[in-house]
Specification:
mainly beta, 2 domains, 14-stranded parallel sheet, 11-stranded parallel sheet, 1 helix, about 0% helix, about 45% strand, flat
Length: about 450
């Protein structure tokens, strides 16, 4: 095996730390302890099995930050950490613990099998975790870069479980230059094995701009989608983001989101659906929490194309949506009419009787504007008042001079304008703190 201890670990330009097996023996472990770690430009850390031997484990522990970013253009190597099973031996486990982790520019963290063996489990513990610009954390069957690519079509290997615990904020956003979605995945793309389960725990979650949390059994896979369980202590926000469990041929996975507040906007979706034969059944979507908000075409779905629709349950003290009806935003339809079930356990309050239509003009802005001169209405006199100290008497009064210190008394002087006179000028004749009062011009045009 390989063991590295360093204050700072930096790998770049397709640099590789690797341990593997091409026989029946177990691959070596890779253990790295560092203050910070940076993998750029296609740099990789991996342990692989290419035969019947089990793959070794990969462990990265950083007391500071971890950065994984980009690829090596000449070979298209992606920067990242990998535990791979390309033979008949099971893959090893991959474990990362860190303060803050940033994965970006299609960097990846991956455990994978090609179908004949089980993939290893993938575990991440961090204070903050950010995935952006096509970054992916993947534990599954097949190659996430080449769905439907090389792999055993008859293999029964199972995708590994993905377990992510974030003490503060998990952020998933955007897509990469090749259109890859940023996200967490336990997908099964080849073979007959089931996708792994996906567990997420965080204080806050933000999934936006095409980001995704996914467990899908698709294409050549004949297995079931995995279950997704997400626990969020504070708020889960999806803005053009999705949480998805789906299957092309068997049964959809189950999704459970437990949070204080769930807010879905801009067409976000939580869905567990199936696209197979009449024997298939849509999955289950359950949302537990204090409040659930679905706006701007956002919805929960558990649909089926030929089989029976799934089950959706909302257990929330507050459930707000902008759909025409509940069934528009909670959708368990089947294309053949065998719809699923929707259950909403929230207080029902009809507030339509408490709403009153506002008048066409409910605010008279003109009434809030001061009359500069009373001559504009029927009055015969206008006045302009100067006070030497203190604050204006009201919001319509002039601001007072800041020269309020000295031997002067408070001065109040009024100017009256009568008849057709338009302009009168009063030159200052009083001194405040030995400074002359500026000339004051009062205009009252009829």
């Amino acid at each position: 095996g390989i063991r590295i201890v360093a204050d700072e670990l930096t790998l770049a330009k397709a640099a590789v730390i690797t341990a593997g097996t091409a026989g029946s023996g177990r691959g070596g472990d890779v253990i790295i302890k560092a203050g910070t770690a940076s993998l750029r430009g296609g740099a990789q850390i991996d342990s692989s099995s290419f035969a019947s031997g089990a793959g070794g484990n990969v462990t990265l522990h950083a007391t500071g930050d971890i950065l994984i970013s980009g690829r090596f253009k000449q070979s298209d190597f992606q920067s990242g950490l990998f535990s791979l099973s390309d033979g008949t031996g099971p893959g090893g486990a991959l474990t990362i613990t860190t303060d803050n982790a940033l994965v970006m520019n299609e960097g990846r963290i991956l455990t994978r099998t090609l179908g004949d063996a089980d993939a290893g489990t993938l575990t991440i513990r961090a204070h903050d975790l950010t995935l952006t610009k096509g970054a992916q954390i993947f534990s599954g069957i097949g190659n996430p870069l080449r769905p439907g690519g090389p792999g055993s079509q008859t293999g029964a290997g199972r995708g590994g479980d993905l377990d992510v615990t974030v003490a503060d904020t998990l952020t998933i956003s955007g897509t990469g230059f090749r259109g890859l979605q940023s996200g967490l995945f336990t997908n099964a793309q080849v073979g007959r094995g089931n996708a792994g389960n996906l567990f997420v725990s965080a204080t806050r979650i933000s999934v936006s701009d095409g980001g995704i949390i996914s467990s899908i059994s698709s294409g050549n896979s004949g297995g079931d989608a995995g279950d997704i369980r997400i626990n969020v202590a504070d708020i889960a926000q999806l803005s053009n983001g999705s949480i998805r469990a789906a299957s092309d041929g068997t049964s959809g996975g189950n999704i459970t989101l437990t949070t204080s507040s769930a807010q879905l906007t801009q067409g976000s979706e939580i869905t567990s659906s199936v696209f197979g034969d009449p024997e298939t059944v849509g999955g289950t979507v359950i949302v537990n929490g204090d409040s659930l908000v679905l706006l701007e075409r956002s919805k929960l779905t558990a649909r089926a194309t030929q089989g029976r629709g799934g089950f959706i349950a909302v257990n929330s003290q507050v459930f707000l949506h902008d759909g025409v009806s509940v069934t528009e935003v909670l959708d368990t339809r089947s294309a053949l009419g065998n719809d699923g079930t929707v259950e909403v356990n929230s207080p029902e309050n009809d507030i339509s009787g408490s709403i009153t239509r506002l008048p066409a003009s409910f605010l008279n802005a003109a009434a809030l504007l001061s009359e500069r001169c009373a001559v504009r209405d029927a009055d015969e006199a206008s006045s302009f008042v100067i006070i030497g100290r203190g604050v204006p008497r009201g919001p319509e009064d002039w601001a007072l001079s800041s020269y309020g210190h000295g031997n002067s008394d408070v001065v109040t002087q009024a100017i009256e304008s009568r008849g057709p006179e338009k302009d009168r000028v009063l030159e200052g004749a009083h001194v405040i703190a030995d400074l002359p009062v500026a000339m004051i011009k009062v205009s009252c045009a009829r």
